[in-house]
Write a structure and sequence with these properties.
Structural class: mainly beta
Helix content: 10-25%
Radius of gyration: 15 Å
Shape: globular
Oligomer: single chain
Order of helices and strands: EEEEHEE
């Protein structure tokens, strides 16, 4: 099961509900925490399309944990 969490600017997380539709029946998947930040990064690295809308151009992973000097690291580029 995949539940998408999006980190906000203040360090919190938005829980984005995912609806799984199979034939005429829909199932709401319940939010579930990730075991680690690494697990979330791996899922998004493998499926970057989870971060885009159908009307947007495709996104691609360039690199994980990009160093930004004194600002820390960018999780996914």
């Amino acid at each position: 099961m995949l539940i998408l969490f999006i980190e906000t600017v203040d360090g919190g997380y938005l829980k984005v509900p995912i609806i799984y539709k199979q034939t005429a029946k829909s199932t709401k998947l319940m939010p579930q925490d990730f075991d680690s930040e690494n697990e979330l990064q791996q899922i998004l690295a493998e499926s970057p399309e989870l971060l885009m809308d159908d009307s947007e151009p495709p996104v691609y992973l360039v690199q994980r944990e990009v160093p930004l000097g004194n600002a820390g690291y960018l999780d996914l580029l």
